[in-house]
Amino acid sequence: MTLSLAEYHRLLAREMREEALVSAIVRLGAGNGWLAMHQLPAMNSRGRYRTAIQGHAGFPDLVLVSRRGVLFVECKTEAGSLEPEQRAWRDALQAAGADWRLWRPRDWYSGHIERALEPAWEEAQ
């Protein structure tokens, strides 16, 4: 059985974990001059992973900043869905004029993310 490239990418996307997507985006962005912020969960005294925050839950996974602008990015697996708190942040950020995006592994394999994070510097003339 021969798979097309698109079919192969769909299979890869289905298996990609959210953590791998976030890491790939941070690496790509850094290589193209974007600053990135991502909060990693830490294990608490009960052996559970939690992300320490003060304020409202559901803040986007990534904030990416360059000369080209500021992106607030929520990352999900192919099957993942937004929680109500994440939808509230999306709605508030978009109402304030912010560039909020939902990225999934399919966006990585399609080149959509790479195009969005093109180099932040301008070509020498």
Brief description of this entry?
The protein has 125 residues and is of the alpha+beta class.
Helix/strand layout:
Layout: H1 5-15, H2 18-31, E1 35-37, E2 42-43, E3 49-50, E4 62-66, E5 69-75, H3 84-95, E6 99-103, H4 105-110, H5 112-116
Parallel strand pairs: 5-6
Antiparallel strand pairs: 1-4, 2-3, 4-5
Characterise this structure.
With 125 residues, the chain is α+β, with helices and mostly antiparallel strands. It is built from five helices and six strands; from the N terminus they run H-H-E-E-E-E-E-H-E-H-H.
Taking the sheet with the most strands, its summary is: 4 strands, mixed
The CATH class designation is Alpha Beta
Task: Please report the distance between the alpha carbons of the first and last residues.
Answer: 49 Å
Q: What series of H and E elements makes up the topology?
A: HHEEEEEHEHH
Mean pLDDT: 89
Number of domains: 1
Strand content: 15-25%
CATH topology: Trna Endonuclease, Chain: A, domain 1
Features:
single chain; 125 residues; Trna Endonuclease, Chain: A, domain 1; two-stranded antiparallel sheet; 6 strands
